[in-house]
Specification:
This protein is α+β, with helices and mostly antiparallel strands. Helix content is 43%, strand content 29%.
C-alpha cells in the first residue's frame, strides 16, 4: 500500500472529512512517529507493533560500480517489531 491508497482508504471510512483534513491527519501521525524516533525514543502501537532505532557500527563497504572500498560511518536505523496481533493474523491465513 502506498500513501495515496492509505489516504483513499481513510476517506472511504470517513466520508465526512475533507481530503485535506485526512492528509493532515496522516502527516501528523507519521510526523510524530518520525519525530520520536529522531529523539531516540520508541513508538508502540498496541496490537500493531513497535518502532524504534538500532545502532549500526561503522564498517568498510564496497562501491558496487567501481569495486573501490569506502568507509561507511556508524548510524542509527529505524527498526519495526510486529505486535502479537499482526503476527497472529499473518500466520493464521
Amino acid at each position: 500500500m502506498i500513501r495515496s491508497e492509505l489516504l483513499q482508504a481513510l476517506h472511504k471510512d470517513n466520508p465526512d472529512l475533507r481530503a485535506d483534513e485526512i492528509e493532515q491527519v496522516a502527516d501528523i501521525f507519521f510526523g510524530e512517529i518520525a519525530g520520536r524516533l529522531a529523539e531516540g525514543g520508541r513508538v508502540e502501537l498496541r496490537g500493531f507493533g513497535a518502532f524504534s532505532t538500532r545502532a549500526r557500527e561503522s564498517r568498510q563497504g564496497r562501491n558496487p560500480r567501481t569495486g573501490a572500498t569506502v568507509d561507511v560511518p556508524s548510524k542509527r536505523v529505524p527498526f519495526f517489531k510486529a505486535g502479537k496481533e499482526i503476527r497472529r493474523r499473518l500466520n493464521d491465513q
